[in-house]
Structures are given as structure tokens and as C-alpha cells.
Amino acid sequence: MERFRTRKALLALMAASGLLLTACSGGGDTGEGSKAADRPEYGAGEPAPAHGDEDGTSERDDRREDPGHLSTFALDVDTASYDYARRSLADGRLPDPSTVRPEEFVNSFRQDYERPDGDGFSVTVDGARTDDEDWSLVRVGLATRTAERGGERPPAALTFVIDVSGSMDEPGRLDLAKESLSVMTDRLRDDDSVALVTFSDEAETVLPMTRLDGNRDEIQDAVSDLDTQDSTNLGAGVETGYETAVEGLREGATNRVVLISDALANTGDTDADSIL
């Protein structure tokens, strides 16, 4: 029985790999004329119907509710779920079960998969039995070649538009943003620049575009002084943020405006189209 179940799992794995290769060969094109467009659509998690017998029945249809034939396949490298769970546990509380995604826990650690030399990808497969005789685990790891670091990047001119409304006072919001901005300030180069804009009922430029060279302490102080206030005037924050970015625009640099917020606009201009 175990040999039969393992054989079925390997066949399912081979089928999944074939589907993956077919999808990759299409270059991600889902428009008319693409391979993806030629395939019929099925519901999320629903297997494509197998060729039926003469009486219209299908062995795969009979197995649809069998947990032994359940498989999932994901192509992402998200790690947010693990980071959130770790922070929740460090704060002495359990994470919301809906936020716990096992694949993001796995992706949070280096798996040391063998990497190809060219532009393709390698496939690493391993598995194990579980205490439940109806379940086995199979891990499929994909890896591409290691990305080569390009040449020296241009200087960065970064304008951060930070929500300091009352809701940002909850754990894991403004405190996390401040911690991240502090780490970033330590790691940026001397020829990079940072500007800080805050918004609550109104927007304010708390730090104009400032070079890191000789000014790290000033930037760190500005980050440390960020504190929550009242409402969320997102429109004013975005407008002031771009005004500040234009005033501090650096030719030849990577100029970016980064919005840090947790909620919807509820004061001032709240229309998404006009804010955009």
C-alpha cells in the first residue's frame, strides 16, 4: 500500500513538473494565441478532468475528495508571514492563524538547493512519511542561478511619506517603520539622500532632502522623533511628499517617493483618483 501511494505521489509530481515547464515555455503570456489561452480554465485548486470512461465516469473525479491526492504548487519567495509570526511571538502573543503560511516559513531559510549554471532552473525533490498513514510530505525546490551583482549603483534620493495617524500607534506599525528607517539610515551610502514627510490631520516636511554624509545623526534624530497624532490626510501627505521630492530632485540619482501607511484616507481629499 505504501509503495502504491508513493508511486502515485511521484506520478503527480511529474505531472506538476510538466505543467510548470509548459507554463514557463509560454513566457508568461496569457493573451490570445498564447499556450495559456489555449488551455481551459478550472476553479482554483480544482484538477482538470481526466478522460472519462464510456459511461462518463472518471477515476480522478472519484478521487477529488481524497486527501491523499491533494497537492499545492507555489512560485514565490514571500517571507512576510514568518516575519509577522516571529514578531508576534516575541511580543508575547499568538499570530492570527490566517496569517500563518507554511511556504513563507520555508522560504525564510536558505535551503541550499543546487543551482544551475545557465538560465534555466534546477529541481530538488525530497519527501517523508508522517504519523498519519494517509499523508506523506513531498518538497519540491526550484532554484535559478545566483544573480550577479551589477556595477556600482547610482546615488539614491529617497523621500519617505510616513503616516503618523492614531492607528499607527498599534504595535508593529509606526514602531516597526521607525526601526526600519533607522536600520536603513545606517546602511545607506554617504552619497545617498533622505527626506521625511509626515501626515496626520495635515502634512509636514520634517526633514528636507539631506545627504547621509555627515548628517546620519540628524536623520536618526528625525526618525526617532516621529510620533502618532490624529487622522489620516493621505492626500496632503502625498502632495507634500512629491513637492519635497521635486525640491530635492537629484539629477543622475535614483529618485523615489515611498509611502508608509496602514489605512485608508479619512481626512481631506479621500478620492483615490484625485490623489493619484
Describe it.
- This protein has 276 residues and is an alpha/beta fold.
- It has two domains: 2-73 and 110-144, no CATH class; 156-275, von Willebrand factor, type A domain (Rossmann fold).
- The protein is 33% helix and 18% strand.
- The chain is built from nine helices and six strands.
- The chain has helices spanning 2-25, 35-38, 59-63, 80-90, 102-106, 174-187, 216-224, 234-247, 272-275, and strands at 121-129, 136-144, 156-163, 193-199, 203-211, 254-260.
- The chain has a four-stranded mixed beta sheet with strand order 5-4-3-6, with helices on both faces.
- Strand 1 and strand 2 (136-144) form a beta hairpin.
- Helix 6 (174-187) packs antiparallel against helix 7.
Task: Give me some keywords for this one.
single chain; 276 residues; alpha/beta; Rossmann fold; 4-stranded mixed β-sheet; two-stranded antiparallel sheet; 9 helices; 6 strands; disordered N terminus
Outline the secondary-structure elements.
Elements: H1 2-25, H2 35-38, H3 59-63, H4 80-90, H5 102-106, E1 121-129, E2 136-144, E3 156-163, H6 174-187, E4 193-199, E5 203-211, H7 216-224, H8 234-247, E6 254-260, H9 272-275
Parallel strand pairs: 3-4, 3-6
Antiparallel strand pairs: 1-2, 4-5
Note the gap between the termini. Answer: 60 Å
CATH architecture of the largest domain: 3-Layer(aba) Sandwich
Quaternary = single chain
| CATH topology term of the largest domain | Rossmann fold
Residue fraction in strands: 15-25%
* Count of individual helical segments: 9
List the secondary-structure elements in sequence, H or E. HHHHHEEEHEEHHEH
User: What is the CATH top level name of the largest domain?
Assistant: Alpha Beta
**Strands, count:** 6
State the domain count: 2
What kind of sheet is the major sheet?
Answer: 4 strands, mixed
Helix content: 25-40%
Provide the low-confidence segments as ranges. 1-54, 56-61
| Biggest sheet, spatial arrangement of strands | 5-4-3-6
CATH superfamily placement of the largest domain:
von Willebrand factor, type A domain
What do the pLDDT scores average to?
A: 78
| Global morphology | globular
Structural class by sheet pairing and helices: alpha/beta
